[in-house]
From TrEMBL:
Residues 195-210 have a biased composition (Basic and acidic residues). Residues 1-347 form the Protein kinase domain. This is Kinase-like domain-containing protein. PROSITE patterns: PROTEIN_KINASE_DOM. SMART domains: S_TKc (SM00220). The keyword Kinase applies.
Length: 352
């Protein structure tokens, strides 16, 4: 085994090299692959809980296949530890890509050879089609799903970058990974899975509101947050992503949301408040907690639209995120196939 260890909530990933004479995984992975990602599930778990998590993640990976979903190559146990084997993403995560390829540091442009707005839009289309397949809709890219499921942990750390070389040109392909929190669901049923949100920053407002349910719009909100950060990086680079995060962090819930504890600094895209009626609103009526987009998020849309580097394509992408994805009312959000179809239409008629 070689390389770095990447920590997760209840697991960690080890980069490892397996000699080609000792495995037959090459037909499943990319050609000439030497390195693999070994996910080890045991951190913070009892053995029984780790086993359940292990089996659930295997099942989730088997429900959906897509060229932009990292395939599970093998799974095994050894000495009360549970292992999942995936292809190694040599470009790191999308978060790493944003941080390591700062497009505009030192007030100058630093475009890597593979970057263009069209590349970014293409990646977002394929990401959306992968999520469409996860949700059980028809894929446009050959994806297959045996059962609809929710991913429930969409964030830049869970999209990994595979380096591609064609005609001497290097680029990156993004693939969705980590189905550790994924749950199957039935659209015809009124019962929705209740799931603790591990996607802290990108979690939707319904996760914090009493009586709310987890549904497809959960993933759409998370994807909208990711798209807004992606657009921010495309226009302002890593510094813009960091500045946006810091502005969100400074905005807290209203002070009377929790009578027992003061509001804490938390990086989310929404904030909570007590819904107030007219001045005569009776004090005996139970308090209702509602959510709003943080002012910094609302301002970010306008800030990016007014930026000199905001192209016509990026402007309409911002409008999609603002009007169809980052909506407090989950029922008003677009379905994943609607988002995908919009991005596909742009992809086919793209102009920079």
């Amino acid at each position: 085994m070689q390389g770095e260890i990447l920590d997760g909530q209840v697991s960690f990933v080890q980069k490892m090299k397996i000699h080609r004479d000792h495995h037959d995984l090459l037909h499943q992975a990319e050609p000439l692959v030497d390195y693999f990602a070994l996910k080890i599930i045991d951190k913070g778990h009892t053995i029984e809980a780790a086993k359940i998590s292990f089996m659930d993640e295997i099942a989730a990976n088997q429900r959906t296949t897509h060229r932009r979903i990292t395939p599970l190559l093998s799974a095994f146990t050894h000495r009360n530890r549970f292992y999942l084997l995936f292809p190694w993403a040599d470009g790191g995560s999308l978060f790493d890509l944003w941080e390591n390829h700062d497009l505009y540091h030192d007030s100058t442009e630093h475009y890597p050879p593979w970057y263009s707005v069209q590349w970014m839009m293409d990646q977002c289309y394929y990401i959306a089609d992968a999520l469409v397949t996860v949700h059980g809709y028809d894929s446009r890219e050959g994806g297959r799903s045996s059962e609809a499921q929710l991913h429930l942990d969409i964030k830049p750390e869970n999209f990994v970058c595979f380096r591609k070389s064609q005609g001497g040109k290097v680029s990156y392909e993004l693939k969705l990974t980590d189905f550790g929190l994924s749950k199957p669901f039935d659209r015809s049923s009124s019962i929705r899975p209740k799931q603790k949100a591990e996607t802290k920053t990108y979690r939707p407002p319904e996760r914090d509101l009493e009586g709310s349910t987890v549904d497809e719009p959960f993933d759409i909100w998370c994807l909208g947050c990711l798209f807004l950060d992606f657009i921010t990086w495309a226009i302002e680079g890593w510094g813009g992503v960091e500045c946006f995060r810091e502005s969100r962090l400074l905005e807290t819930d209203e002070i009377d949301v929790d009578p027992e504890f003061p509001p804490v600094l938390e990086d989310t895209f929404f904030k909570k408040r007590v819904q107030r009626g007219a001045w005569w609103w009776p004090r005996s009526v139970p308090r209702t907690i509602v959510a709003d987009l943080k002012p910094s998020v609302i301002s970010q849309f306008q800030h990016l639209r007014n930026h000199a580097r905001c192209t016509e394509d990026l402007e309409r992408f911002l409008s999609l995120v603002q009007s169809r994805m980052l909506l407090i009312d989950g029922s008003a959000r677009a379905a994943s196939n609607e988002v995908r179809d919009t991005l596909q239409a742009w992809k086919q008629s793209f102009k920079e």
